[in-house]
Amino acid sequence: MPRFANFAAIDWSGAAGERHRGIAVALWRHGADAPALVRAGHRWSREEVLDWLLGEMPADTLVGLDLGISLPFADRGAFLPGWAESPADARALWALLDAICADDPHLGANSFVDHDDAALHFRRHGGREGSAFGGGRGRFRVTELAQQAQGCRPTSNFNLVGASQVGKSSLTGMRLLHRLDGRLPVWPIDPLPDRGSVLVEIYTTIAAMVAGRSAGRSKIRDVGELNVALAALGSGPVAGSGPIDDHRSDALVTAAWLRGASAQRALWQPAGLDEVRTTEGWTFGVA
After folding, report:
1. What are the DSSP E strand ranges found in 115-211?
2. Among positive and negative, which fits the CA dihedral 251, 255, 260, 266?
3. Cut 0.85: pTM above it
4. How far apart are the first and last CA of the chain?
5. Is the dihedral of CA 248, 249, 252, 254 positive or negative?
6. Residue 172 maps to a domain
């Protein structure tokens, strides 16, 4: 079981444009009493997050990225059934997406969801639902069904509509994952190494629930409530009082949660992982 020295959580954004209020990076450094925001007050770009991961993140860090690292595969035996270019595994999916979106700035993914073959699988704005979307809530990964069993409310990565959608974040994030180019292992797509930093998919609601919040009240927008949640996770308080946006509080709470969760062996060996390890991946914290 690896012992990480540092713990980071990144609340991600799939919104259009270069810089995003929705991106926040929190880091619990070895020896600190609590996590802290990295570049507090800074409006991050997705490319800056990539640079931080590869060039500035401290060694031996477990870092969580709040997005889906892949698309559903197990339910139909393919990510994009019916398309000859449908990839065989997650890394090939990342590469395909990045190639199709090569001209999209800021790690955007519009070219992929507008692609004639890929678009058939997505629910998009303007009442556009592809014939392969599947209706209802759409398709889910095995880990998302397990999230649901734990009391969470996952949304299909093929759904790009609504406040709770995570599809845009996931697709832009897959472009970042492709550009890591093996320099930072992505669990469970990559085996868990004996040492060094590792990136995992996170779902910030899981951290909030462990901290005593319900799935419906997972968002924290007050520093006092944030410190109550941090205390429940064995963390000291952060400074200040009054309002805080939920992107920053999500990152802080999840960094604190990762510190304790990383030592739980069962979270690295969840039931159902082996059949989807290199295709769908997994959300760390879903047992």
Report:
1. 123-124, 128-129, 186-187, 198-201
2. positive
3. yes
4. 16
5. negative
6. yes
Q: What is the pLDDT of residues 66-88, one digit of tens each?
A: 999 999 999 999 999 999 999 99
Query: Same domain, yes or no, for 203 and 166?
Result: no
Q: Which amino acid, residue 29?
A: R
The CA radius of gyration of the chain, in Å to the nearest whole number, is 18
Domain that holds residue 216: 6-69+183-268
Express each pLDDT in 201-224 by its tens digit: 999 999 999 999 999 999 999 999
What is the count of structural domains for the chain?
Answer: 2
Quick: pLDDT tens for 107-133: 999 999 999 999 999 999 888 999 999
Is 278 part of a structural domain of the chain? no
User: Where among 179, 197, 222 does a domain terminate?
Assistant: 179
Do 44 and 174 fall within a single domain?
A: no
Both tokens of 195, joined, read: 């040492």
Which residue do the tokens 């295709």 mark? Answer: 279
Q: Is 211 left (phi over 0), alpha (psi -120 to 50) or beta?
A: alpha
Using CA atoms, how far apart are residues 84 and 74, in angstroms rounded to an integer?
17
**Nearest 5 degrees, angle CA 51-CA 55-CA 61?**
105
Average of per-residue pLDDT values in the chain: 96
Give the end of a domain, one of 179, 196, 225.
179
Q: How confident is the model at residue 1 (pLDDT cuts 50, 70, 90)?
A: low
Sign of the dihedral defined by the CA atoms of residues 54, 57, 58, 60, in that order: negative
